[in-house]
Amino acid sequence: MIASVRGRVQAVALDHVVVDVSGIGLAVRTTPATLATLRRGDEAELMTSLVIREDSWTLYGFVDADARTLFELVQTVSGIGPRIALAMLAVLEPDQLRHAVSEGDLTALTQVPGIGRKGAERLVVELRDKVGPAGSSAAGTAGSGASQVRPSVVDALIGLGFTGKQAEQAVDAVLAEADGPDDMAGVLRRSLAILGRKR
């Protein structure tokens, strides 16, 4: 298993980053919030999980080992694959995910694209005793101006399956809030909450 990668960032795409590790460019899929903290040419280190399928080997990367552990844990639940597991960590930070599972907060869990009520109930039943207490981690992201945040969040929402119009309307609503977030992670979470209420 490739447990981590460290090297220079070659490229940052919509859903992955390419890290140069000793001359080899490794594509690592990660969350929009993590991508927002990475810059081409900078050094980066990501905790990784390698998912092997018959037709592909895919690396998923996280800012810390705690997020990686949750990513792997939620995949033990029937019907949850790496794509949905990554979407869960895009919508909910590790502590929020732990709290939602341990408290049976189905509303929070169903904000994740691909998770319906039955899937959320299954997550709670199967993981409530495994996720551990909330409060063990908190991953921050650097703030940026609305002009930079808006297109990135819109692209991230489209990547999660929403239409361009839905994504733009939700992001604009969040950015128009007087006391709303202005960092990518915060805007993404609020936008997903708005879109979740409309489903």
Lay out the secondary structure.
Elements: E1 4-12, E2 16-21, E3 24-29, H1 32-35, E4 43-53, E5 56-62, H2 65-74, H3 82-91, H4 94-103, H5 106-109, H6 117-127, H7 146-159, H8 164-176, H9 184-198
Parallel strand pairs: 3-5
Antiparallel strand pairs: 1-2, 1-4, 2-3, 4-5
Helix pairs in contact: 2-3, 4-6, 7-8, 7-9, 8-9
List keywords for this structure.
alpha+beta, 46% helix, nucleotide-binding, OB fold (Dihydrolipoamide Acetyltransferase, E2P), globular, ATP-binding, Helicase, Ruva Protein, domain 3, DNA recombination
Structural overview:
This protein has 199 residues and is an alpha+beta fold. The protein has three domains: 4-62, Nucleic acid-binding proteins (OB fold (Dihydrolipoamide Acetyltransferase, E2P)), CATH 2.40.50; 67-127, Orthogonal Bundle (DNA polymerase, domain 1), CATH 1.10.150.20; 146-198, Helicase, Ruva Protein, domain 3 (Orthogonal Bundle). Helices cover 46% and strands 20% of the residues. The chain has a five-stranded mixed beta barrel. Helix 7 (146-159) crosses helix 9 (184-198). It is found in: Cytoplasm. Keywords: ATP-binding, Cytoplasm, DNA damage, DNA recombination, DNA repair, DNA-binding, Helicase, Hydrolase, Nucleotide-binding. GO terms for molecular function: ATP binding; four-way junction DNA binding; four-way junction helicase activity; hydrolase activity.
Q: Can you summarize this structure?
A:
The protein has 199 residues and is of the alpha+beta class.
As a whole number of angstroms, the C-alpha radius of gyration is: 16 Å
For the largest beta-sheet, the strand count, sense and barrel status come to:
5 strands, mixed, barrel
Name of the CATH first level of the largest domain: Mainly Alpha
Strand content: 15-25%
General shape: globular
Give the mean pLDDT.
85
